[in-house]
């Protein structure tokens, strides 16, 4: 009876005429409530009917078509982005719980399974939007056709997409290697057709951006499923971009420490940020055996990742959580890079050296003299 009451109380949040703030709050509340009632821990019995009805309120709005149709003509374009990102974050929290506690969340996993391919596609759309919004090059962002925000509302939408992308990133990574990662993707000529459609959408957005009145710019690109390789490239690129930004902040923190007055110990700050630590902790999932090959991830990219990780690990700006994540990632990678190190090429030699340095990073951080063995 209580479940029916709560379901009835939540339904108005998802009505077509509900204000965006109410719908966004309803998404978050629904997610938290589902997490509370879908664990079988302690012998609690999960009601599959209640889970199906409540979950349906969320998943019915989380398809590429449904997200695109969300609009609030009387309000700013950013209002729809608020609802889209809130719904995607809510669903991501559910998937994260399923991935973390598969046994205790078995009923939720069963109910969520059929929606995962569409959710994956929508989460990837959000991540593409974040990559465009965070790009340093204004021109790169200008030629991009967004999925979840209109160009005219990019500034107002950025905060909401920035808050949502870590949850979407984590949810997508939990799918790698599963059927939900592989299903409902284009192959062969379908993949080529999609690339052409995406290019046409980007061109349309670029033309719209030349409009004299920015209020007229309201082009949304359809969210289509991409080939596995394209999604992997986006995810690894997002990690590298985030780590490169953390590396730059760490270098600045180290420079500040050098410039500190003699005899004064400079404060130790976290120059990496939670997002960079999340990326490092997530790389073992992302570097699945399907992608840990020179074809999927070229040697030059692997070398860049290893060098970024080493530099960050040696910085004063790297907090303990980052160092632990890097050490764990190194242990994961070391026995799996045979395809990169056995080739006998210059790239293979450099990757082996970079991996050896990364493995020795904890000792080199504790004993700085090890960085220059001739000084011992």
Provide structural commentary:
This protein has helices at residues 2-10, 20-37, 48-59, 64-69, 78-100, 106-112, 116-134, 138-142, 154-173, 179-182, 189-208, 228-258, 274-286, 299-313, 320-333, 338-341, 346-359, 361-366. With 376 residues, the protein is an all-alpha fold. It has two domains: 2-182 and 197-216; 239-257 and 267-375, no CATH class. Helix 7 packs across helix 12. The longest helix has 31 residues, at 228-258. InterPro entries: Laa1/Sip1/HEATR5, Laa1/Sip1/HEATR5-like_HEAT.
Count up the helices. 18
Strand percentage = under 5%
| Integer average pLDDT | 85
Rg, nearest Å: 23 Å
Helix content range: 55-70%
Overall form? globular
Q: Give the domain tally.
A: 2
Distance between the termini: 74 Å
* Count of individual beta strands: 0
Give a quick account of the main beta sheet: strands, pairing sense, barrel closure.
Answer: none
Summarize the structure.
The protein is 64% helix and 0% strand.
